[in-house]
Amino acid sequence: MNWILLDSINQLEDIKNHSKPVLIFKHSTRCPVSSMAKRNLELEAVLLPEDVQTYFLDLIKFRDLSNQIAEIWKIKHESPQVLLIHKQKCIYNNSHNEINIADIVVKINELTY
Questions:
Q1: E strand intervals along 1-113
Q2: Do 21 and 108 touch, CB atoms closer than 8 A?
Q3: What is the count of structural domains for the chain?
Q4: What is the CATH number of the domain that holds 21?
Q5: CB of 41 within 8 A of CB of 82?
Q6: Beta-bridge mates of residue 83
C-alpha cells in the first residue's frame, strides 16, 4: 500500500476534488486495535484498484485534521477509522474491527466514474 501522509488542510481540498475514489485511514499510533486494522489493510491492499489513492492520517500528530474531516464529511470521529471519499462525498466509513477491504472494494465497484 502506498500511503500518502495526510498532514495539511490543503490536502483535504485535493481529496474533495479528486475525480476518483480516495481512501483515508485515520490511525492512532498508541492503539493496538488501530495497528491491527492498519496491518490488515496493508495485507489486503492488493484488492484495491490501482487508481485509488490511500491517505494515512496520524491522529496523534494531526488531530486537528481529523476534526476537519469530521466537519467536512459529517462523520463522527473514531479511531481507527476508514473513509472512502468520492465526488466530494463520504460514501463509506467504518471503524475498529469493522474495517474491511472487501467491503471497501464492493463500494468502489458500485461507482461509475
A1: 3-5, 22-27, 53-58, 81-86, 89-95
A2: yes
A3: 1
A4: 3.40.30.10
A5: yes
A6: 24, 93
CA distance 1 to 111: 21
Task: For residue 72, give every residue at least 6 positions away whose Cβ sits within 8 Å of its Cβ, in sequence order, or none.
Answer: 12, 16
**How open is the CA angle 95-83-104, to the nearest 5 degrees?**
85
Joined together, the cell numbers standing for residue 45 give 491492499
Residue type at position 51: D
Question: Looking at residue 113, what is its pLDDT?
Answer: 64
pLDDT of residue 112: 72
Q: Each residue of 40-73: pLDDT tens digit?
A: 999 999 999 999 999 999 999 999 999 999 999 9
Domain assignment present for residue 51? The answer is yes
